Amino acid sequence: AALLLAACSSAPPKAPPPPVPFPPPPEPARYLYERSIYGTSDVQEPGEEERLRLLLTGTSGKAGTLFAKPFDVAVHHGRVFVSDTVRNAVFALDFPTHRTFLIGQSGDAGDLGKPLGIAVDATGRLYVVDNGLKHVAMYDRDGRFLGAFGSREVLDRPTGITVSGDGSRAYVVDVGGVRSENHVIHVFDPRSGKLVQTLGSRGREPGQFNLPRDVAIGPDGLLYVSDGGNFRVQVLKPDGTFVRQWGHAGMRYGQFSRPKGIATDPQGNVYVVDAAFGNFQIFNAQGQLLLFIGHRSERNGPGVFMLPAGVTVDDDGRVYVIDQYYRKLEIFRPVELPADKGMLVEPPPAAK
Prior knowledge:
By secondary structure, this protein is mainly β.
C-alpha cells in the first residue's frame, strides 16, 4: 500500500481545463470562468488519502458540507461568505488558507433563522439579514456574534443589504408584498441599532419601489437598487433623493424580467442578476449595457444558471454569482488579472 501510495503520489496531476472565455470567440474575452464551488470540500486542502482516492477513482471522497439553498455572497480579502436559507447558516470560505466554517450555528443568540442578504464592511464585519427573525445579525470576520439591529415592528420581509465602508450606515431592503406597503429601504446605524431613516414608498414614480430586491453602494457613494416589480435599476443619493434610473420589462439585453441581486465594482460598473434570463448584465454607472454573462439550461456548466440570486465583486474585479437551482457559487476573473494574483489566492499581509 505504501508503494502504491508513493507511486500514485508521484503521478503527474491532471491539467485543469482551459478557462472558458466570456464573451465567447470571436469577440475578445473580458472575463474568464474560473471555478464553481458547491460546498466546503471545494475550498479545503485535500489530505493524502483524498489525493490517493482522486488519483485512483477520479473523486476525492472528501467529507464536507454542501450548499443546500445558497442565496447571497459577500467577500472580504479572500474570505467568501455565502448565506444558505436551508442550512440556516452562512458559509465562511477562506480561499488563501483553505479554512472553512459555518456562522450562525453556535447555539446562542447569534443563531440564524433564515439568512438572506449579506454584506461586509471594510473591516470584514459581516451583516446578515435574517428574514425569519426579522433583524440583521452582526458578526466579526471570524464569525463571533456581535449583536443585532432591527425588529418585527420595523422589518416586514427584509431581503437585501449593503453597508457603508466605515460601518456607520446599513441599508436594508424590505421587499414588501402584494398586500404590504413596506416596499422600502430602511437605513440603520449599526453601532447604535437605531433606525435613522426610511427611503421610498410603494409605487412606480422615481424614488418609489415595487418589490425591491437588493441594494449596493457604488464608489461614487450613490445607492443602486434593483427595483424588481418596476423592472429597473434606480440610483439614489444616500438620503433617498432620486438621481437616475434605467431599464424596463422586456426580453432584450439591457432590459429586465426578474432582476434580483445587484453589485458594483471599484470602477463604478453595475452588475444585475436576472433570474428569468439566467444571467447577469454589466452596465456602466449611467446604465449603458457593457456585457452579459450566462444563460439558462437544464444541463449545468460554466456560466449556466437556472435560478441566479446574489452577486458581488471583489476589489480585484473577480465576480461571484450564486445559483440556487444548481446550488453553486461561480467565480469569474477579468482577463487582465493573472490566475495566481489577487486576494482570492494571496494571503492578506501580516499585521504590523
